[in-house]
Design goal:
This protein has 386 residues and is an alpha/beta fold. The chain has helices spanning 2-19, 22-27, 39-42, 57-70, 74-83, 85-91, 100-113, 116-129, 155-179, 182-194, 288-301, 303-314, 325-385; strands spanning 138-146, 210-214, 217-229, 235-242, 258-261, 273-276. Strands 1, 2, 3, 4, 5 and 6 form a 6-stranded mixed beta sheet that branches.
């Protein structure tokens, strides 16, 4: 029965692939087997002790990719994988996929074990092996990742709780009157009145996000920092902080490589060569040389705005419902992971197009050379006859 279902799914997928499947094209840009080194670092396999076998780590990583590619929640991811044939083929299985709680637990394991950084490093290694190294320069910038700040309890609820507490204290006090002497009762009442009532921790105290202001708008949440190269616009480094952290406090520069940045990074230290735009100070305007320099840098660094636009609009990374920096950072890093996969597909397509054009150009040159040679031979033959 299983083989019949597999045959039906793959036969139907052949029609989908004929129409065009981006998942298949983009997924082929990554060697997924090389992520298996994370399995013993994340899982504690207890199959020898009677526990259930672990779910294939390749499938779990691909599930995270699908989730951030299409901006899906954990329950919606489970539903879409069960519903869409292209998702099943991308995962490499037609069997029952893990439920949404398993996806959540896997992401939590990645975060708590600190192995999410190793996942990112492996992706960067594969990018480097394709020949896409950073040589000419890099661009750094940051963007806001909004989040829900939470709400304080309403005053009505607090008043109701206070009244309930007063009634309970009166009831207990009447019982104590019958058992304890009045003098001792007065002392105990004074002690009870001076004690602070235990309060439920506010929801805001569990949220690590912070408020920040840009222009006239205020934002609550986190800030995503990225570094891209100036040639292929691939994301090379990612970091997530609270929204109140200034852009210049995070340095993602590469040693020996120019780092282009906007005016927020003026004067900030970096591992690379400082190529940030100059900022005017009060009473000291920028000179013509600094103005022209800023224009040149602005043209170079503008490419990073497209990265943020794609990550926010196409992959829905502009808003998170997470309450910690680590969880928000995990989602932002996976969005950057997906962006790089899509960018690798475009680069591969561009290089194949250039190769076809170069081959076509060589053929045209060969045809022109042959036609010129024939024309010369024809002229020589006509001259000999005369």
């Amino acid at each position: 029965m299983r083989s019949l279902i597999d045959f039906a799914i793959r036969t139907e997928y052949a029609r989908i692939k004929a129409l065009g499947d981006d998942l298949c094209e983009i997924g082929s840009q990554i060697d997924w087997e090389r992520f298996r080194f994370l399995e013993p670092l994340i899982y504690k396999n207890k199959t020898s002790h009677g526990g259930r076998p672990n779910i294939d780590i390749e499938i779990m990583i691909k599930l995270l990719v699908l989730q951030h590619w299409f901006g899906l929640s954990d329950p919606e991811l489970e539903r879409q994988v069960a519903d869409r044939i292209s998702f099943r083929i991308f995962l490499g299985t037609t069997e029952v996929v893990p439920d949404f709680s398993t996806v959540w637990l896997f992401r939590e394991r990645l975060i708590k074990s600190g192995k999410l950084a190793d996942l990112w490093k492996e992706l960067q290694r594969q990018i480097g092996e394709k020949g896409y190294t950073v040589k000419e320069g890099s661009i750094q910038d940051a963007t806001f990742i909004t989040s829900d700040p939470g709400r304080k309890r309403k005053k009505k609820d607090q008043k109701a709780e206070n009244k309930k507490g007063d009634k309970n204290s009166e009831a207990t006090g009447s019982k104590q009157v019958k058992e304890v002497d009045k003098g001792l009762l007065d002392i105990s009442n004074n002690i009870n009145n001076n004690q602070e009532k235990p309060t439920r921790p506010d929801k805001e105290s569990t949220i690590e996000g912070s408020w920040a202001k840009k222009g006239v708008k205020s934002f609550f949440g986190y800030k995503g920092h990225i570094l891209i190269d100036t040639v292929r616009h691939l994301i090379r480094a990612v970091e997530t902080t609270t929204a109140s952290v200034h852009d210049s406090q995070v340095d993602l520069g590469i040693k020996g490589i120019p780092r282009y940045a906007d005016k927020a990074y003026d004067g900030a230290e970096t591992r690379g060569y400082d190529a940030a735009m100059k900022k005017a100070t009060r009473g000291h305007k920028l000179g013509i040389r600094d103005i022209l320099r800023n224009k040149r840098i602005s043209m170079k660094r503008s490419h990073i705005e497209r990265c943020f636009a794609v990550m926010k609009r196409a992959h829905n990374s502009g808003h998170v419902s997470e309450t910690t920096v680590a969880r928000a950072g995990a989602k932002f890093m996976m969005s950057a992971f997906v962006y790089n996969m899509v960018q690798l597909k475009h680069l591969a397509k561009k290089s194949s197009t250039k190769l076809r054009l170069s081959k076509k150009g060589r053929k045209i040159e060969e045809i022109e050379m042959i036609s010129d040679l024939k024309a010369k031979l024809g002229q020589n033959h006509g001259g000999n006859r005369s």
